[in-house]
Amino acid sequence: EVQLLESGGGLAQPGGSLRLSCAASGFTFSSYAMNWVRQAPGKGLEWVSGISGSGGGTHYADSVKGRFIISRDNSKNTVYLQMNSLRAEDTAIYYCAKDLDIVPTILAFWGQGTLVTVSS
Amino acid sequence: QSALTQPASVSGSPGQSITISCTGTSSDVGAYNYVSWFQQHPGKAPKLMIYDVNERPSGVSHRFSGSKSGNMASLTISGLQAEDGADYYCNSYTSSNTFVFGGGTKLTVL
Fold this sequence. Notes:
By secondary structure, chain A is mainly β. Helices cover 0% and strands 51% of the residues of chain A.
């Protein structure tokens, strides 16, 4: 059974940093791309970043490019999202999503999310 | 990357069929068959209902179907049931190696 467990969310100050983690189980982790998607309170979904199965390819939404870094440790079956220079508009539930392929194509399975609040 | 365009809300009675449209551009919906649809109930994570325009993941009811013509994709739900009431989002891969979502459609089952 595929399971994704996000952690690391919480309260951060504007300009601050947080690192999110997503621990995966139930599938061959290195064979699938992984993504982060967020949802601001009461709003729609926004794709944030994706990383290929090998970790060699990374992609970002314009809204986070230069501030967020996605990475993965295939030995630990974990994908990370390092969030720097946080802004109030980064406040959202952050979901980890397993792809259908080794490169990002389809957001096939989602975790339950972790809440990030950016406020002074 | 601009969001895909969906109607804000649709409604239907039990047993009826409804269709939700999703309009993109030649750089996303029109360029690839990596079009997906997600169902989200309040307080829950999104669930993949349709991928690759018209494929259903294992366990998803055959009442859900998808299609695409040019830059517009559609989700059709037939034989509406009360539990189909939820928010629905379309999604497409883009030529920039990113993903773009629609703004979401609230489905009310009357």
